[in-house]
Write a structure and sequence with these properties.
Layout: H1 7-30, H2 51-74, H3 92-114, H4 121-135, H5 138-143
Length: about 150
């Protein structure tokens, strides 16, 4: 089956998200003040500092979308990679793409609640929403359907 055209912007969104989150997570773990964060922003949160949020950002919105991108591109049959796949009739990468879009929306909403607004937040919210829309695009859903033959 030919790759749907909508797959290419979906891959691009995963790559851009992953690279940005790797950088942002790394900065939060290593030098959050130089990154523009203020120490008092985490005072009323369960976190003592920015290391743990940085690690979560690095792994969940950095590594995970890039791993998902590899799955979306090559559709490898890695059984171990599908252990979180809640849609057994779809390739695991499709499900993980849904998870990625949801994680972005959750992360951004929590972030907007905890720290002051900044100009990139609407772009990341839109990116998360676009990931969900493209993942649910009918041609992409068909492309990642697992045939039972």
């Amino acid at each position: 089956m030919k790759r749907p055209l909508a797959l290419f912007p979906l891959l691009l969104l995963h790559i851009l998200l992953g690279i940005n989150a790797l950088y942002g997570g790394w900065m939060l773990m290593n030098d959050p003040l130089a990154f523009g964060m203020k120490a008092e922003w985490v005072d009323d949160t369960p976190f003592r500092g920015y290391f743990l949020p940085g690690l979560i950002l690095f792994v969940l919105l950095g590594v995970f979308p890039l791993f998902t991108c590899i799955g979306l591109l090559g559709r490898p049959g890695w059984q171990w990679a599908g252990w979180l796949n809640i849609y057994p009739d779809r390739h695991w990468a499709w499900t993980y793409s849904l998870f990625t879009g949801l994680m972005v929306l959750i992360w951004m909403n929590v972030q907007m609640f905890v720290i002051p607004s900044f100009w990139l937040q609407p772009f990341f919210l839109a990116g998360g929403l676009l990931i969900l829309i493209l993942t649910l695009w009918p041609a992409i859903m068909r492309y990642y359907l697992i045939s039972k033959t």
